């Protein structure tokens, strides 16, 4: 695996509230228990077997394919996953495009599970997820050719600072791909809790125009912007179980925790009402 030089930097920006929101306890054990119910041979688990739980963003694998097929990734790319979660998207990128992926996440349990699952599917030498803050990353300048964020900015208020820090570690001409939930009209009517925030105080959605302004203020040029809200509506219509239905052994409910039905229901209601929705933005240093 390509080595990215790491320096010791302060993690004073780490938000305990956000980390606690995502910490469930015994997540790795619960995922492996789900695998025992869905995979015939647990000694030969693949990223496809993990897909139902692995990519914790609206649209899952299909959303990842749609975004990353636009980036022309190759084995030569050194890729940064900002807010890597349990590493599902990083494993998809490593497996599909051959790139080495370094992830960073401020939730210790996610980092532990990410490494555990990467080793389980034989990608431990291609994917490495470390604990840390996206606002103060322990990487040298100009370390990565591509960076991406999948549903991360919703928890970070100072987006210009976030994008500046990512730009610092991108090589000249490097790409930043963002897939985030953005604010729609009448956003103040949004219902909580949602998957990214239990209370409004830890939710920091921006509009599409504001996102582009933050990126330009951080020194990027914008390559493309795409509203994926209709895609999200179709995705949730297909996966939300009927009332009283039993969730599958593997799914994002394992990550969201006991409030999963309420959080998912609220998100679907909010998206269908036009209060928020996912967007893609591809920018360049």
UniProtKB/TrEMBL annotation:
Residue ranges constituting the Methyltransferase type domain according to the UniProt record: 80-177
Species of provenance: Candidatus Lucifugimonas marina
Xref: Pfam families: Methyltransf_11
Keyword terms, alphabetized: Methyltransferase, Transferase
SUPFAM superfamilies (alphabetical): S-adenosyl-L-methionine-dependent methyltransferases
UniProt name for this protein: Methyltransferase domain-containing protein
InterPro entries: Erg6_SMT_methyltransf, Methyltransf_11, SAM-dependent_MTases_sf
PANTHER family: GERANYL DIPHOSPHATE 2-C-METHYLTRANSFERASE, ZGC:194242
Molecular function per GO: S-adenosylmethionine-dependent methyltransferase activity
GO BP term (any one): methylation
């Amino acid at each position: 695996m390509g080595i990215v030089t790491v320096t010791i930097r302060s993690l004073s920006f780490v938000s305990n509230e956000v980390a606690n929101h995502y910490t469930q306890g015994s997540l790795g054990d619960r995922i492996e228990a789900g695998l025992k119910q869905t995979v015939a041979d647990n000694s030969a688990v693949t990223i496809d077997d993990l897909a139902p739980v692995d990519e914790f963003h609206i649209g899952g694998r299909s959303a990842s394919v749609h975004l990353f097929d636009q980036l022309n990734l190759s084995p030569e790319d050194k890729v940064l996953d900002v807010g890597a979660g349990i590493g599902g998207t990083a494993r998809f990128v490593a497996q599909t495009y051959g790139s080495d992926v370094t992830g960073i996440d401020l939730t210790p349990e996610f980092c532990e599970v990410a490494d555990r699952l990467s080793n389980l599917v034989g990608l431990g030498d291609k994917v490495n997820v470390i604990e840390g803050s996206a606002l103060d990353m322990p990487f040298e300048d100009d370390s990565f050719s591509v960076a991406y964020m999948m549903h991360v900015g919703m928890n970070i208020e100072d987006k210009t600072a976030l994008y500046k820090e990512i730009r610092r570690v991108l090589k000249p001409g490097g790409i930043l791909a963002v897939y985030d939930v953005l604010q729609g009209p009448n956003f103040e009517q949004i219902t909580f809790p949602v998957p990214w925030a239990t209370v409004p105080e830890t939710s920091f959605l921006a509009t599409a125009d504001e996102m582009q302004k933050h990126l330009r203020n951080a020194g990027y040029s914008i390559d493309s912007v795409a509203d994926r809200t209709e895609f999200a509506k179709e995705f949730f219509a297909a996966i939300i179980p009927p009332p009283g239905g039993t969730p599958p052994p593997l799914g994002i409910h394992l990550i969201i925790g006991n409030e999963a039905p309420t959080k998912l229901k609220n998100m679907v209601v909010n998206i269908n009402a036009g209060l928020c929705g996912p967007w893609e933005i591809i920018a360049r240093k």
